[in-house]
Queue: 2 jobs
Job 1
Amino acid sequence: MRTIAKRSAVTAAAAALAMTAAPATAQGSGNHTVLDQGHVDVFGLAYEAGALDLHVHDEEHDGEYAPGEVVLKVNNEAKTTVPAGYDFLGTAGDDVWILPDTEVAGLLFAGYGAEEIAPGDFASDSLTITVHDAWGDVDLYTVDDLGAPAVEFDSDAGLGSWDVTAGGHGHLNWAFGEAGFYKLTVEAEGVLAATGETVSTGEVDYWFWVEA
């Protein structure tokens, strides 16, 4: 369960974000861009000039943003109910907001991408994305061909991670337990093939706004 202090802190910060958020199509107005539909690599990875970087890549408008420049909006069309067999999301029939791992008009098609990582830079061409914390009830998961879910991150359990292949790309299901603002703290790291050194992006904050 999230503490009242933690929820109050994120609400106050979210209110400040909301005051400055601008639509994705707006140019030069406001301090934050709102992305609310279309293909977006939420966790975009790049390795340039010896630095590993996390960013948001808006595939629809061919735009790239630092995570702190963006509010990722979950439109109310994402509101549904918890299906049977998905106990990690809550009780079957409860409200939940889900951005699915398939493209749906009017919703974010949210994923991750390492197309800017050159093969051979990292040992085994592998990097790891870790979600360290979430302010709010968040679950990230995949579903296999038989409909069985595999949880990559559950805010009730804490830290969760998964591996990404250099040049690779993937999508997740993003589930939120209630309307409001959320913050995810994320880090990516990998071992350099040439030196054996571990490089990291450090912990980076992402903001989500779930519409009622």
Job 2
Amino acid sequence: MSIKLEIKRKALHLTGLSVPLVYLLLGRHAALFFTAFALVIFLALEPFRVIEDLRERAKRKLGLPNHVVEKLEREIDGIAREHERRGIGAHIYFTSAAFLVVLLFPREVALGSITLATLGDAMAAIIGKPFGRHRFRNGKSLEGSLAYFVTGLLILTPLVGIFPAVLGSLVGTVAELYELPPDDNFSNQLAVAVALWLVG
């Protein structure tokens, strides 16, 4: 994926910051409702993204202009990873994990892990793609991993203190680097949250 498409993808991912923002402004119950509502919407729409026949039937029923729909489809296909084009999208994994993190963990842990998973992932790609010189076998770079780690320290230290921030950032960096199953958009948040909770 080109750096331009990667930036588009990460810009879309940054909408994940709406979860900690809702939590900060309106509280835990509002954040749970918000993520649950978003997840239901995403799950309802997901078959139309993945199954072409369903999408074609919906287009005909809605009567949308072909050029508008085709442009939107090209944009979505352009920023989707190969495994997402016929499988579960990153937004489903991210929203599911965010709901679990808000539900199961204390406020500072939830805010920190969701924010880090969102911004850390974006910084790792934005720095790692163009500036990564030391590549791992999976194509990710040392520079991108360092960008994630530093982002983690900046986000987590004010919330949980320096030692938990170092541990949480390190765990998140490893989870991001190895893309822990089922998907790094799911495992990253939970890995950071568990690490912070254990030392909290």
